[in-house]
Amino acid sequence: MRTDWITRAETGADIPAIREIDLAAFDTPLEADLVEALRTDASWIDGLSIVTTDQEGKPVGHALLTRCHIDATPALCLGPVAVLPEYQKSGAGSAAIRAALKAAKDKGEHFVTVLGHPAYYPRFGFTRASGHGISVTLDVPDEAMMALTLDAGHPLPSGTVRYAAPFGI
After folding, report:
1. Is the four-CA dihedral 168, 63, 61, 121 of positive or negative sign?
2. Which of 12, 51, 52, 115 is the most buried (most CB within 10 A)?
3. Do the Cβ atoms of 118 and 146 come closer than 8 Å?
4. In the chain, where does DSSP find H-type helix?
5. Tens of pLDDT along 34-61?
6. What is the dihedral of CA 20, 97, 54, 37, to 10 degrees?
7. Strands (E), the chain
8. 76: closest CA among 10, 148, 165?
9. Which candidate, 16, 77, 66, places its Cα nearest to that of 41?
10. For 56-115, how does the pLDDT look when each residue is reduced to its tens digit (9 = 90+)?
């Protein structure tokens, strides 16, 4: 696993490459379309769409954090996270996630939720959301819904996750 990945906030020039990453990483265009819809939504937060690039500056991975709420408490939703297939399992996705979580903490954010693979996201500190009294209105496996506090001084709130409108949830 490489550790020399370059991560940075997306720029306007990255938008086509991010779409290509999403289209290549997922079976349908749903995630690519979601990212585009989120980009024009009030849930978008500048600086929390992170790309991983190779040494030549080519974007190969992407992680996105957008505004959601746990009941009335502002939080962030991690996803989509995508990596070009030829770079998967190389650390490019992990680098983007770590950079996105650091950027969120630097912006004063406290809470992040993710609906994802239960064997992958705990490495970033995510734990089962239900253990904190956090639920979703989706029928998903309990272990796949996870949450993280970015600051030990702010314990995770309980409540139901409310996603941004483009998620259609």
Report:
1. negative
2. 52
3. yes
4. 15-25, 30-39, 92-106
5. 999 999 999 999 999 999 999 999 999 9
6. 20
7. 6-9, 49-53, 59-70, 73-83, 111-115, 127-128, 134-135, 145-149, 159-162
8. 148
9. 66
10. 999 999 999 999 999 999 999 999 999 999 999 999 999 999 999 999 999 999 999 999
